[in-house]
Amino acid sequence: MMITLKEAATKILAANKILITAHVQPDGDAIGSTLALMQMLRSLGKEAEIFIDDSVRKNLHALPHFEKIRRPKAEEKFAADLMIVLDTSLDRIGVVKNLTDAPILNIDHHVTNKGGDFDLCVETEAAATCEIIFKLARELEADITPEVATCLYTGLATDTGFFQFSNTRAQTLAAAAELITLGVSPNFISEQLEKKSLAEVRGLSAALNSLKMFYDDKVAGITIDHATAKTFDSTEGFIDEIRVIETVDVAFLITEKAPKICRVSMRSKGVNVAQIADKLGGGGHVRAAGCTLKTSLDEAEKILVAAIGEAL
Ligand code: AMP
Ligand code: MN
Ligand code: MN
After folding, report:
1. What is the mean pLDDT of residues 57-73?
2. pLDDT at residue 194 in the model
3. Interval 132-165: pLDDT, tens
4. pLDDT for res 149
5. How would residue 173 be classed by pLDDT, with cut points 50, 70 and 90?
6. Does residue 109 have its Cβ closer than 6 Å to ligand 1?
7. Which 8-state DSSP code applies to residue 27?
8. Which residue's CA is minimally distant from atom 13 of ligand 1?
9. How far apart are CA 59 and CA 41, in angstroms?
10. Is 172's C-beta closer than 6 angstroms to any atom of ligand 1?
11. Domains and CATH numbers, the chain
């Protein structure tokens, strides 16, 4: 059931022991929003714990209270009276789904989030889930400390490509400005986030070497095989290097995370890639979306190029 942010706040205030989670392969928005909400809830005297069913790429480890994020064991249980799922629909939270039978509150900004038999507060105009959590702080009358602000700013910055993408709106910048007033150091966050390991830069170089063009250069794609992919923990920003090609409408990156597990990222300047991803079992936003294809790298490329061709 769709509910407003105010109603979401009422549900949160009525709960005492709260489990917070976000999507696997967590990004700055997933980690920033969960850490910010955990701190806000604890300051209101609630018990709040974060469980995420995945490892987190290194350059997010510097966020305040990062060490409190727990990775659940397969059979683990956690007694809670509310589970809050951030920045994703429920199909991307892994085993966290089985941790508790508590009622679910899902707060998200993805257009492809279809909800289910639980409370859903989705704001597709929000640039990031962190933009929604920023507003939620007001509804909860929770303090935005400099540490909370740092987490929220990280989500705003990462989901907007540092305030460059089309999802950047006046409210996003207004929130960012207020967060800076509240104590955020934008250059500290940028410096943490831009860090890459040597293996990652070598991986980027290999990925760019794999560049292929399709459909009269309207589509550009790069791939990373498993042997290369296992040497580093993030491909953040790789796709942006080919999205910039002037003829390109759709850019894609396929990463072979494990044999027959291919993670697809798409970016577009016009075509609705959320729709393409949705058809392939994934989701996302109109101009940034993704999915996972359980095939070989070659097969994944064929499937994806065909699906993009249909949408063009
Ligand atoms: P990425 O390319 O990983 O940065 O993802 C782009 C956008 O698509 C993000 O908003 C993701 O949350 C979303 N997305 C990526 N993969 C999936 C998936 N398998 N299912 C649903 N949404 C996805
Ligand atoms: Mn995310
Ligand atoms: Mn997000």
Report:
1. 96
2. 92
3. 999 999 999 999 999 999 999 999 999 999 999 9
4. 98
5. very high
6. no
7. -
8. 284
9. 25
10. no
11. 5-193 (3.90.1640.10), 198-311 (3.10.310.30)
In the chain, the largest separation of any two C-alpha atoms, in whole Å, equals 59
Pocket test for ligand 1, best of 285, 286, 292, 293 (most atoms within 8 A of CB): 285
pLDDT of residue 74: 84
Q: How far is the CA of 109 from the centre of ligand 2 (A)?
A: 9
Q: Which amino acid is at 57?
A: R
* DSSP states of 247-291: T-SEEEEEEEEETTEEEEEEEESSS-HHHHHHHTT-EE-SSEEEE
Task: Write the DSSP assignment of 28-46 as a string of letters.
Answer: HHHHHHHHHHHHHHHHTT-
- Give the pairing type, strands 219-224 and 250-258: parallel
Beta bridge partners of 20: 50, 84
Q: Is 115 left (phi over 0), alpha (psi -120 to 50) or beta?
A: left
236-252 mean pLDDT:
97
If one residue of 267, 291, 292, 293 were mutated to test the ligand 1 pocket, choosing by the most ligand atoms within 8 A of its CB, it would be 291
Q: What is the mean pLDDT of residues 243-255?
A: 98
Sole residue written with tokens 């939620």: 136
Of residues 136, 103, 110, 105, the one with CA closest to residue 5: 136
Q: Residue by residue, what is the 3-state secondary structure of 82-120?
A: EEEEECCCHHHCHHHHHCCCCCEEEEECCCCCCCCCCEE
Averaged pLDDT, 104-123: 97
Q: Is 76 exposed, middle or buried (0-12, 13-18, 19+ CB in 10 A)?
A: middle
Mean pLDDT of 3-10: 98
* Cα separation, 195 vs 28, whole angstroms: 13
- Specify the pTM: 0.94
